[in-house]
Design a protein that fits this description.
Layout (H helix, E strand, L loop, with lengths): L1 H42 L3 E4 L13 E9 L13 E7 L9 H17 L3 E6 L7 H23 L1
Antiparallel strand pairs: 1-3, 2-3, 2-4
């Protein structure tokens, strides 16, 4: 009977040990995933908006332009009152140093284009397709170009 008790106790100790090892490994895995998630959020902050114009051959490591548009106030005498053209440029910046992720940057730019069109401003777009890094940025540029065409098309009909 004591041999049976020793085997039973050994099995229980082994199961407790195995459960402890599995729990430890599981907690390490969860901690690594959480660290990766927060690092992923930080590294996805790769886009910033600049209120300045970029030229096509301009190279800046801290800001790579992807799309910009210049707004010109409506012609009804407002330029005489001192209003000047304003350029808004969406740029890719080093990972973690931007204010927005790709989807947020797209939504922000779309909203800005819409607001400019609603104010009756003339929108002059410029795309930097050759600077796009990957499919996501190429799609972003295409969507912003399309939005400008749609908004300026609507503006012409009013």
């Amino acid at each position: 009977m004591s041999d049976m008790f020793m085997v039973f106790a050994g099995v229980i100790v082994f199961l407790l040990f195995a459960a402890g090892v599995m729990a430890y490994q599981n907690s390490r895995l969860i901690a690594q995933q959480e660290a990766g998630d927060s690092a992923g959020r930080i590294s996805s902050l790769m886009y910033s908006v600049y209120y300045q114009s970029f030229s096509y051959n301009e190279e800046r490591p801290e800001a790579v332009p992807l799309f910009q548009f210049t707004v010109r106030p409506p012609a009804e005498g407002q330029r005489a009152s001192g209003e000047i053209d304003k350029t808004i440029a969406l740029c890719r910046v080093p990972a973690g140093s931007g204010e927005m992720a790709l989807s947020d940057a797209q939504n922000w730019m779309l909203g800005s284009i819409r607001q400019s069109a609603l104010r009756g401003e003339r929108i002059i777009p410029a795309s930097f397709k050759d600077k796009a890094a990957g499919k996501g940025e190429q799609e972003l540029i295409f969507r912003l170009e399309t939005a400008v065409k749609e908004e300026t098309g609507h503006a012409d009909h009013h």
